[in-house]
Amino acid sequence: MKTVLFSILLLLMPVFGPFALAAEVNLYSARQEALIKPLLDRFTEQTGIQVNMVSAKDDTLIKRLESEGRNSPADLLLTADAGRLHRARELGVLAPVESTTLEQRIPASYRDPEGHWFGLSLRARPILYARDRVDPEQLSTYADLADPRWKGRICIRSSSNIYNQSLVAARIATHGEAETEAWARGLVGNFARPPQGGDRDQIKAAAAGQCDIAIANTYYLAAMLNDSQESERASAERLAVFWPDQDGSGVHVNVSGIGLTTAARNREQALRLMEFLVSDEAQRWYADTNHEYPVVEGIEPSDTLKAWGPFKPDGINLSELGRYNADALRLMDRVGWR
Amino acid sequence: MTNSLARPFRLPSPWRAGVILVALVLALPVLTVFGFVFQPAGEVWRHLADTVLKDYVFNSALLLLGVGLGTLFGGVSSAWLCSMCQFPGRRVFEWALLLPMAMPAYIIAYTYTGMLDFAGPVQTGLRDWFGWSYGDYWFPQIRSLGGAIVMLSLVLYPYVYLLARAAFLEQSICVLEVGRTLGAGAWTGFFRIALPLARPAVIAGLSLALMEALADYGTVQYFGVATFTTGIFRTWFGLGDAAAAAQLAALMMSFVFILIVLERWSRRQARYHHTSGRYRHLPRYQLRGWRAVAAFGLCLLPLLFGFLLPAGQLLAWAAQTAERTLDAEFLRLVWNSLGLAGAAALLAVLLGLFMAYGKRLRGSYGVAAAVRVAGMGYAVPGTVIAVGVLIPFAWIDNRIDAWMRASFDISTGLLLSGTLVALLFAYTVRFLAVSLQTVEAGLGKIKPSMDDAARSLGLPPNQVLARIHMPIMRGSLLTALLLVFVDVLKELPATLILRPFNFNTLAVRAFELASDERLAESATAALAIVLVGIIPVILLSRSITRARPGHE
To answer: What residues of B are in contact with residue A338 (Cβ under 8 Å)?
Structure first.
């Protein structure tokens, strides 16, 4: 029995560990460890500030922040999409931040107007097409994908996925609900198969010929192009990127972003981490390692991204994605987007 | 088999109060979530009813039916063959059939998709070989309701197998021999004597499998099958409506509850303990020729598809990526997973034993209901339980903090939230049903006259438990330990949400990489879960065989 108690105590050690250190910052991260840890380690190296982290899904981390209230140990919330940051703000768990560095380096549409959250990296969701079966001349806009000539040719994942919810939310913000619903109905009618799998699966299905067009985030395609497995690279090489709506509202984009919590106790360290994440070094790391587009202008993207050329992103403020998220989900339920 | 139990001894009231108290504490997370039920959510319900609700009901019901049939067939047939028949390979199958249990459902789903998907090696190979292209041929769609049923059945049948096998091993051979003297052959002996006698154990295993299937999120979400679990998440987080989500969860749990009640009702007064105390070595049916081949095949099938194939694929992936994924940090993951799973398993089995024995001593409705409520957590998705733990823990912590600030001007911060205590509590809530069902099934097979004899000779209730029951049902206790251990090892959502800073487990690592669609890199962690799970599976399987009463 004693050994059991002892091992339980031993297990609890890591809980009390972090409180012993002086300079530290506590992070709730919806970006999983592998995608952010190297950057955080670099920060610790430079500043001596230890970063403690819990990674989980956005929604549940926000719930945790909300119920922990003013005693929450978290100083920062990092998410992989802007809609969630907006929701966190609405729930009152994010505090406004004033920082000229952040304001100067991040374009206005990629941060909260009142400084409750800031975008850190840009994720584009354009049209990917099979080189051998689609003439890019036929492609123009997202709206066009609802046209019956694409019947049975489009692959996209489930509406449970936040990227699709954000895509639809952005369209509601720009085109209104009725027009978006008609568009979504047409799009669903053109699906090659019931929505399933992740973004990479859509790319693979298009490469294998199950559909001609996949809608997916570009960093998945980029990661596949740089994969160590031959089969992944071969699939990805069969597809090309088309930037839709270049004469109109632009390509749908989302950001991964960060916000200071209202409960934050290590404000100063937290702010330093936020500013570090928009430094040239960190932005280049996002571009090179994760194949996301930097939010800071003038930072070169990775070679893979450069090959796809520049594009015009959708200019709406990304907090709109959060505002219309529930409407988007209902709309997708109504049109039978599973 | 039927008699009514006279209960001449009164349960000491501290014990009874203890059972009810523990049950209430463990019911806290479920009750917290159900508290949302009373908030009005009328308009969202209209929307759900108009659009997706019938999909949720239909898909969940079919999933339960399919997984129920699959696990029942796979589990019972292999358990019977391995405990009552002799055929080549039996001694290996005996423990190897448990191996799929160590495989997390979402991992097997990712793995099979990687292999069987349209773009996977199997279909690509077929297309290259025959010169087909899309639409030229038919191939089963892996990401579908049917696929989800197969995946879940493959990893969940061991629950039925394990409990059914323990029951077959614990059975007294006299009953079967009496059956034989009355003219029952091998098949009749199985269907009319052994199977009905093993019913509590089989049902216990089956309901565990069904509850797990109902609570599954990873597989159905990846396959794009709209079930209650995916619906709860969409409603709660996507539509931002906690009340409607809780009501969906309540509806889902009433499914399970009705099933359990129906089963209990159909048993009514029947009792399943063996009346003979004479045990001797089980004589096995010697199978030869095609029968032996059939038995071999029947046992190989679930093992092959539930373990060998996916583990082989994982191994191949792990070999490609091991140098990047194996480091010092990885050992820490293994240690964290082992420690958590071990602690949670001990806790859950101790509490399960306490409650099951309390119920046996004092079968009052209050105690019985408390025990039932405490076991509800298993059918609830892990995320829902986790949020149910999060809210009351944080509330209590904040209350204490506020009071300390007001009275002594000291801030205590969060005492329990974000610690391993909260995590262990969540595991106990979620997995108590596993130990409870197993222990109850074991206890149910011990004649009440044993209690009576021991008590009349002056042993107090706790001594009866420690000196009579626990040794007799060592097999069931070990089974319970093993089940909870492996379950916690695989557990994901509660671990993700509730864990402390800088604390990761194998399941977290495997899931994070797999969900980022980096399947090959997730293989090392997934394989480690399987390996860490296998060692206790083998050890315990041996003890279960040895734990047969009268053995040695």
So the answer is: 55, 224, 226
